[in-house]
Specification:
This protein has 4 helices and 10 strands. With 211 residues, it is α+β, with helices and mostly antiparallel strands. The strands form 2 sheets. Strands 1-2-9-4-7 form a 5-stranded antiparallel sheet, with no helix packed on it. Strands 6-5-8-3-10 form a 5-stranded antiparallel sheet. Helix 3 packs across helix 4. The longest helix has 18 residues. Bound molecules: 2-acetamido-2-deoxy-beta-D-glucopyranose (NAG) (3 copies). InterPro entries: Cupin_1, Germin, RmlC-like_jellyroll, RmlC_Cupin_sf. Oligomer (believed to be a pentamer but probably hexamer).
């Protein structure tokens, strides 16, 4: 019996359905209202457990102690245990003049950036190597799609402050400079990957480890 000419197509559809379902998956759903850390006496849980105060005082236009480099303050389920199971987290970003948040990805979440003060140049690269850039002003939002490489840059004199929401309690961050040049990958591998000599690789490694 001849195989239906549609068989390869239907196999492809099944495979892409399965793969798509995986891609759509976020944090696992919980089947209780909320989760508390193990060893916690549940009867001692009150409103304080659902409150995070660690960002108090950080939203001012000019930080009290002027910084010279970019600073990210994450509020994930590690800092704020009540987020465990709620599929959401925040980060606060402070950009002194001229600073960058270097190219990185979040393997488990998209990122919705909301600029509070200043102006930023932002961009991401999709899987077809398309670059999407924008200048965002205070009050603007920008969405970085899940898993794609992106960056932010404050080229201005004024300080910039942003918060980002992530649809994961633990979005994860893979910073490209440190992941590639600060983790002990064989220098020959890096030299071949970037088509440069090993002495240049060593210089980049030194510089990444110092920053
Ligand atoms: C606390 O509650 C969770 C579920 O809400 C339960 O799994 C856990 O066993 C409880 N812990 C104690 C010490 O009662
Ligand atoms: C849990 O907390 C309640 C109220 O604070 C207290 O009465 C109870 O003894 C505690 N249980 C344990 C196992 O520590
Ligand atoms: C709420 O819980 C926290 C930590 O367990 C405790 O320090 C605080 O006194 C509690 N507040 C009230 C109003 O019970």
């Amino acid at each position: 019996m001849a195989l239906s000419p549609l068989l390869p197509l239907s196999l492809l559809l099944i495979v892409s359905f399965i793969t798509n379902n995986k891609t759509l998956a976020g944090d696992p759903d919980i089947i209780s209202d909320f989760t508390v850390p193990q060893q916690t006496n549940n009867t001692s849980i009150n409103g304080s457990f659902f409150t995070y105060t660690g960002l108090r005082g950080l939203l001012t236009h000019r930080p009290q102690t002027p910084q010279t480099s970019f600073k990210a303050t994450k509020v994930t389920m590690l800092e704020f245990p009540a987020l465990n199971g709620q599929s959401i987290s925040y980060a606060l970003f402070q950009f002194p003049s001229g600073s960058i948040n270097p190219p990185h990805t979040h393997p488990r979440a998209s990122e919705l950036l909301f600029l509070l003060h200043g102006s930023l140049q932002v961009g991401f690269v999709d899987t077809k190597r398309g670059l999407y850039t924008q200048t965002v002003e205070a009050g603007d939002m920008f969405i970085f799609p899940k898993g794609l490489i992106h960056y932010q840059y404050n080229p201005h004199v004024a300080h910039a402050t942003a918060i980002s929401a992530f649809p994961s309690a633990n979005a994860g961050t893979v910073s490209l400079p440190i992941s590639l040049f600060g983790t002990g990958i064989d220098e020959v591998v890096l030299a071949k990957a970037f088509n440069i000599d090993v002495s240049t690789v060593k210089k980049i490694i030194d510089s990444v480890n110092k920053s």
